[in-house]
Amino acid sequence: MSTSTPSTPPFRDPLLPFGKRIDDLMARLSLEEKIGFLHQFTPAVERLGIAAFRTGQEALHGVAWMGPATVFPQAVGLGATWNEELVRRVGDAVSKEVRAMRALDDRVGLNVWSPTVNLLRHPLWGRNEEGYSEDPKLTSAIATAYTRGLRGDHPVYWRTAPVLKHWLAHNNETDRDTSSSSVPPRVLHEYDLRAFRETVEAGAVAGVMPAYNLVNGRPNHLSPYLGEHLRRWTDEELLVCSDAGAPSNLVDSEHYFDTHEEATAAALRAGVDSFTDHGTDSSKITARVRGALDRGLLTEADIDTAVRRQLSVRFRLGEFDGAGAYDEAGAFDTPEHRALAREAAEQAIVLLKNDGLLPLAPDTRIAVVGLLADECKLDWYSGTLLHRSTPLDGLYERFGAERVVFAEGVDRIRLRTSAGTFLHVPAADDAPGTAPGTEAALDPALLTGRTDLPPLTTDAEGTELALVDWGEGVLTLRAPDGRYLSVADDGFLRASADQPGGWVVQETFRLEPHGDGHLLRHLGTGRHVCVTADGVKVAETDPEVFRPVVAERGEEAVARAAAEADVVVVVAGNDPHINGRETEDRPTLRLPAHQERLLRAARAANPRTALALVSSYPYAVDPAALPAVLWTAHGGQAAGTALARVLAGDVSPAGRLPQTWYADDADLPDLLDYDVIGGRQTYLYFEGTPLFPFGHGLSYASFSYTDLRQRVEEGAVRVSFTVTNTGDVTADEVAQLYTRAADPSLPRPRRELVAHRRVTLAPGRSADLSFTVPLASFAFWDVAHGRWRREPGPYELLAGASSEDIRLRETVTLDGEAAAPRPVAEHGLEAVRFDEHGGIAITDRTKVSGDAVTPAADGGTGELLYRACDFGTGVTRMTVEVAGEGTVEASLDGGPALAVLSASPGAPGAGPYDYTVLGTGFTAEGVHDLRLTLRGRVRLARVGFSA
C-alpha cells in the first residue's frame, strides 16, 4: 500500500520498495541534475527538496579528519585480535559516532570509505597499517565484521554505508599511479579477489573504491572485473567511488587516454559511479561528462546507471524518510566506547617471545625507555584524540610513579651557525585554549601551519633541541617544551607542531655533510635552512652551515635508567607519518639505527630487558638476547594503559600476527612482484624460515589440543577438536585450522587458513570447537579451463596455535575432478592462462577488457609454459594473435623450437592494440607441454592450432 499523495511524491513514500522510489525520483531529475550527481560533492536539488550529498567519510579505526573522536587501534592491530565479534563492536561504535557527529556537523558523511581490505602481501608497503592481514580468509573475516558494525542492525536502513578500499592488487606507494601489478589468473582468483568477494557476499558492503595503480596494464578505474566479478557477487546495487584525483590520472600521469572526455566516459562505462576529483569543485568533472555526451562517448542511460547506484545507497541510509531508523545524538565518546577502545588495544597486543620475564611482579622497579615510551601516535586516518595514554602513563598508573623511571633516549644537541651563534627557539604562547602535548591539544595538522608564533632566531646560548633519527637519515627536532620544529607556508622555521603530521610532513629534516659542518635540509619543501635578518627560514640559496654540538647521547640516558631498574621496557617502533605511510613505502625491515643503539645500551646495562615494538608494520629484529618481545600496532587512545595491563599480567596477551615477520630484507620479493605463487610469498608459499610465523602469539597460560575429529557431509568437512587451558591464569587462545593438499599436481599453499576462533578459558577449562569447511575451500583456479576445480585425493587438516605451531593433524580424502588436458586443438589457447612463466608481464589486451602477455623487460625475453596441451589426432598449423614487434617461438616438452613467428610494427601509426594474426606450420599430436618464448616488444593475446 502506498501512502503518497499529490503533495508527497512516491519517492518519499516509505511503504514503497526502494526500486520503485528510485524509479520515481529518476524520472523527476533533469539530465543536468543527474550529471551533477556524478561528482563526489553532489549539489542539492532544491526544487525536489533533496539535500546535498557527498561520498566519502574516512573511518578506518574511528571517525577521521573531523576533529575529536574515539581512536581505536590501527586496522592491522584490529587484524591482530583475530576477533570478529570485537571488531564488529568497534565498527558499531564508529558508525554511531559518525551519526552523532553528523547531527552536529553536516560535513560528516554517512558513506564511509572503510575498511581497507588490500592484502598485506609485502611488509614494506607504506600503508601496511591500513590492512588487516596477508591472508584473504582472515582479512575477509575481519572486514566483514567491521562492515556489519558500520552497517548497523536495522533490517532495512543502514547506519553508515561502507565502501571497501582499494580495488585491486594494490600494495605499493612507489609509482602507485603509474605502476602495473602483473597478476596471473590463479593469483587473481585465489588471492586478490577473495578478500573482496567474501566480504561483499556477506551483505554489509555498499561499494568499493578502485586503487590508483594499474592491474595487468589497465588502470583499476577501468577494471572489467567490476562488472565481471564484483557486481555478480550481490543483488544489491554497489556504488563505486573513485579515489581522489584518479580520474584525472587516466590522462595526466598514466597517459592512458588523450582526453579527459574519453577517460571519464571509459571510467563511467566500466562502472565508476562517483568521481572524486578536484576537491569540492565539480565543474571539471561535469564539463567532461557533458563533453563525452556531445562526442557520443556516453549515453544518458550510462549516466542513469551510475546515478541509480548512488541513490540506492542514499535510500538505504534513510535520507528520504525523515530522521530514519538511527538517532545517535548521544553516542559519542561514551564510557562504553572508551572501554571498547581499551579492550581492543589489549586484544591487539602480541607476545612474540617470553623467557619468563613477563608478567611483571607488582613491586618491580621498571625503566621505561625509548622514543615511543611517552608517545601516543596518530596516523593519517586517525581522528583527534579525546584521551591519550602513553606506555609511560600506563606504567605510572599501574605500578606507581615511584616505581617507574623514564628515559626517552633522544640525542640532545645545539646547532651552531657559521657565525658562532646557536639556533634559538623563542618562547611562545600556547595554542588558543590548549597546551601542546596535553589531552586537549589541537590536531597536529592545524598546529603545523601556524604563522602567529615567532620564527627561530640565533643567539649566543641557543636552545637545546631533542634530535631523533627515524632511520634513513630522516630527523625530527623538538624544543624543550615538546613542540616540533616545523615550516609554515611563509617558509619560516617555528616550534609549532604537537606531532609530525599532514599530507606533506613539515617536521622532518636531514643533516647533510658539507665541508666541516652540515647543511640542514627541510624535507617537506626540499630546501635548506638558512639564517636571515628576519629569522631562520628555508630557502633555495645561501644555506647555513651548522655544526651540531651534542649535550647528551640518548643511549647514555637509557643506560643510566636501565641500571637503576629491575626490568627495562624498551618501547621502539615508528612514527606513522615518517618513513612508511601513504605515498611512501618503507626502504627496509630493519629497526632504525638510533633505536638499535638504545636497545643495545639498555640490554648492556640490564639484561632483563623487554622490547615492546609499537609499529604499523613488522620489523626484522634479533630476539636472541632478549628475554621478552611484544608487538602492537599503534593502539589508539588506550594504547599505554593496554600495554601496562599486559605487562602486569592483568590481561594475558592473545593477539596473533596477521602477517609473516621475515628475518631479513633478503627474504622479501620485489615490491612490485604480485605473483604470490610464483614468487613464493606470504605464509601460504614462503619456504624460508620466518622470524615469527603467521598466526604466532604467546600467552601467560598454556593450552593443549586434543581429539581432532572430521567427517564429510552436505558439501563440507565438519571439523572439531578440544582446546584446554592447562595453565594457571584465565586467558584467551586463538585456535587456528589450516588445510593442505597432501599430493597436489601443481603448486598449492604450504598450508592455508580456513577457520579460526578466539576463546576465553579459565584454568582447567576446555572448549569443544567445531568448524564447517565448505568443500569449495579445497578448490583452486584451474587456468587450463578457466574455472574452479577440486582435485581428488588426500588433504591434511591442521589444528594449532599458529601456521607453524600445529598440534593436531588428520588426513581426509576428498573426491573431485581429475585433471584434464587443455583442449588446444579444439579451443586454442588464451596466452594469459599459463602454468609457469619467467620474465613475463601481463598487460591489457584492449583498453576495455582482456589480457595479453609481453616480456617484462622492455624489448627483452620471456618464457611461458602450458602443461598438458592436447593436440588431438594432430595439428599442422599454429597461429598467434599479436601486436607490436618481436618474435614468438614454440617448442614441445623442452625440445628445440618448432615454429618461429615474427611480428612487425605493422602499418604506420599502428599501436599496441592493433593485433594481427600470424600463422606458420606446426606439427603435433597427443598431449605435450608447450613452451613459448617471446622476444622484443611483442604482445601475445592468443594462440590457435588447426589441422
Structural class: alpha+beta
Which topology of the largest domain does CATH recognise? TIM Barrel
Give the name of the CATH superfamily of the largest domain: Glycoside hydrolase, family 3, N-terminal domain
Count of structural domains:
5
List the total number of helices: 19
Give the strand tally: 47
Could you estimate the helical fraction of the residues in percent? 10-25%
Biggest pleated sheet: 7 strands, antiparallel
Mean pLDDT: 95
In the predicted model, the low-confidence regions spanning at least 5 consecutive residues are 430-447
**CATH architecture descriptor name of the largest domain:** Alpha-Beta Barrel
Overall shape: globular
Cα-atom Rg, whole angstroms?
A: 30 Å
Distance between the termini: 66 Å
The level 1 CATH classification of the largest domain is Alpha Beta
Domain Cellulose binding type IV: 822-947
Family: Belongs to the glycosyl hydrolase 3 family.
GO molecular function: alpha-L-arabinofuranosidase activity; beta-glucosidase activity; carbohydrate binding; xylan 1,4-beta-xylosidase activity
Keywords: Hydrolase, Signal
What would you say this structure looks like, in words?
The chain is an alpha+beta fold. The chain contains 19 helices and 47 strands. Strands 39, 40, 43, 44, 45, 46 and 47 form a 7-stranded antiparallel beta sheet that branches. Strands 11-29-28-27-12-14 form a 6-stranded mixed beta sheet, sandwiched between helices. The chain has a 6-stranded antiparallel beta sheet with strand order 19-18-15-26-23-22. Strand 22 and strand 23 form a beta hairpin. Helix 8 packs across helix 9 (260-270) and helix 12 (335-347) packs across helix 17.
